[in-house]
Design brief:
The protein contains 3 helices and 8 strands. By secondary structure, the chain is of the alpha/beta class. It has a 4-stranded mixed β-sheet, covered by helices on one side. The chain has a 4-stranded mixed β-sheet with strand order 5-8-7-6. InterPro entries: Glyas_Bleomycin-R_OHBP_Dase (IPR029068), Glyas_Fos-R_dOase_dom (IPR004360), VOC_core (IPR037523). Pfam families: Glyoxalase. This is VOC domain-containing protein.
Amino acid sequence: MTTIKIANAQFWVHDQNEALDFYTKKLGWEVRADVTMEAWNFRWLCVAPPGGGPALVLMPVPGQPMLDETSSAQLSELVAKGAGGTLFLETDDCDASYNELSARGVEFNDPPTAQPYGIDTSFRDPSGNNIRLTQVLEFDPNRH
C-alpha cells in the first residue's frame, strides 16, 4: 500500500502580503513556497511553523474566471466572518504562547481558558480565519 500524508491545508485570504506578514512576523512561521506564475496571474504562497509538518497555503479569494464577481464578494464576506474554516494549533504551554504572541501583536479573542481537553484560546488572522491554540492535557470533565 502506498503512503499518503497531508502536505498542505489552505485558507482563503483577502491580501496575500498582509497574510504573509501576519504568519511570518506575528506567528514566527517560515515561508515554504512563494512562487508567482505570471502567465496564470497566480501566486502559490505556503507558510508553516518551523520544524516541518504540513504547510498552510495562503490562497487569495478568487475572482474571474473561477468565480463571478458576486460569488467572489460572498466568499470574501464569509471568510471575514470566520466561516472559512478553522486551523487547530497545539502548544506545550498555552499561557506562554499567549504571552509571546500577544507581545508580537496577535489579538486574541479570549484568554487561555481551562477546558476538559486542556487549555485553549483563539484568535483570527487579518482575513478573519479562525485559529485555535490548545495545550492538550489528559481529558478531565471536571476541569473548567
